[in-house]
Amino acid sequence: MSMPSKGLKVLFVGDVFASTGRRLLERFLGGVRQEHSIDFIVANAENAAGGRGVTPEIAKHFFSMGVDVLTTGNHVFDQKEILPFLEEEPRLLRPANFSPRTPGRGHGCFCVNGGEGMVAVINLQGRVYMPPSGDCPFARADEILKDIPEGVPVVVDFHAEATSEKRAMACYLDGRVSALVGTHTHVQTADATVLPKGAAFITDSGMTGPKESVIGMRADRVIEKFLTGMPAKFEPADGPGIFCAVVIDIGQGGRANRIFTVRLEE
Q: Is the pTM of this model over 0.85?
């Protein structure tokens, strides 16, 4: 089984940040899914619990709303109650290039539309300006792709800081994956494109969270730290939010036909 004969439309929701992001996901997800005839939904839940990590209850709520797979990143272990849940729930991923001694899994193949087809999702973390994450993400991607059945489209969440590392990974995997979506920096970029061999790419899908903030946190607390260099307790910002995502149209053979951004404000 590979993919639906009509092709596949994937919605990737950028980093869902704290309670504002959760509210926005609940408000906009259904409408976006209907408007764009979405078949499969991936959301990054890296910051869903107060800006740091995700809890089992939040993950279950996202699944109940129709999210098919949750990806994460460097904050995945911040909420300690998530550790056993990572082992139990195959739809919640942590970066695949973390040590194999850490809980959970970093990729999987998932059914689309009740078994009409399959899609693979791989979660990786970069190494440039990021906390130590274990294995080389490029080498780990090579290993995983050997095990994915031929004909199954592959969507990669590359949770990384440097734009150069994200672009390099996309070029490296072009022709072997259907899409590589960057996460972590929380600012939706304007470079959504389909690479020459058919991989859709965007440097960062953006953040689903508080609009008037510094990448989700209260601006005054972040400014204080910049001005003084002293430790400051960051807190998620309140107020209106912004929903950021990308839609990826994948055709037969796993090549992307199109990628475009979605940006909705309260």
A: yes
